[in-house]
Structures are given as C-alpha cells and as structure tokens.
TrEMBL record:
PROSITE patterns: FA58C_1 (PS01285), FA58C_3 (PS50022). SUPFAM superfamilies: Galactose-binding domain-like. Belongs to the neurexin family. Residues 24-137 form the F5/8 type C domain. It holds the Pfam family F5_F8_type_C. This is Contactin associated protein 2. It comes from Equus caballus (Horse). It comes from the Eukaryota. The lineage of its organism: Eukaryota, Metazoa, Chordata, Craniata, Vertebrata.
Length: 137
C-alpha cells in the first residue's frame, strides 16, 4: 500500500506541515513484519502473505493464494488506525500472476468488516497490467 497517513487530529485553523503531507506518500507496509499480513491461503511458504509488498523480490516475489477463485483475501494489520489515501498494487515479481480486481474492506476490531463505498456503491478496483507495472488507486 502506498499513500497512507496516520490519522491526525487537527484543530480548526491549523495547517499540516509540508513534511507531514510528504509522509502521506510513503509506503506504509514496507516496514511491517511478516506477521502483520494474513490471507485466506498461500501456495506455499515462499508465497506467504508477508511477501505482499511493492517492489519486493523476497520469497517467490509476492503473495499467491492456493486457489484462484473470488474468495481469496489478504489482510494487513497496521497496528492502529490509519487513513488510506492511495493503494498501490503490483503483480508477483517476474511472473504472470497479478490481481485484476479487488474490493477493500476495513475494520477497527478485525471482526466487523465494512466494505469501502464510493458514490453509495461498494467499490471494486479493476486493473490490467504486467508484473513490473505498479498501479495506484
């Protein structure tokens, strides 16, 4: 994920510093440990969810579920509440495996999940690209 920011409380009339605005364009997941990632399944340990990071070649170059149906999911625990301003996805390094569509759900508890809505509709993000093409939404 890219473009995430810590949720800040700003009093009326205050302005965010330029450094904080720039921080919102730094990858949030790059510093997270493997244990912060979980998934519905993985093809093997080399394809585990902890490898689901942009521009990482570790393991098999990314997360891959054991099934390729619409019921696979990837979960990231940020440790505390974050405001997401953009999400970057990329295919598994040096392969023809990549996501073509996904929906985003969020939760404060890890139990009650709410879908991301846009214009009153549950939003589905769609992509067409290769392993070396990063996409942002």
């Amino acid at each position: 994920m890219l473009g995430e920011c810590d949720v800040l409380e700003v009093k009326e009339g205050e302005h965010l510093a330029k450094e904080m605005e720039e921080k919102c364009d730094e990858p949030l997941v790059s510093g997270l440990p493997h244990g912060a990632f979980s998934s519905s399944s993985s093809m093997s340990g080399s394809y585990s969810p902890g490898y689901a990071k942009i521009n990482k070649r570790g393991g098999a170059g990314g997360w891959s579920p054991s099934d390729s149906d619409h019921y696979q999911w990837l979960q990231v625990d940020f440790g505390n509440r974050k405001q997401i301003s953009a999400i970057a996805t990329q295919g598994r390094y040096s392969s023809s495996d990549w996501v073509t569509q996904y929906r985003m759900l969020y939760s404060d508890t890890g139990r009650n999940w709410k879908p991301y809505h846009q214009d009153g509709n549950i939003w589905a993000f769609s992509f067409t690209y290769s392993w070396n093409g990063e996409r942002r939404k």
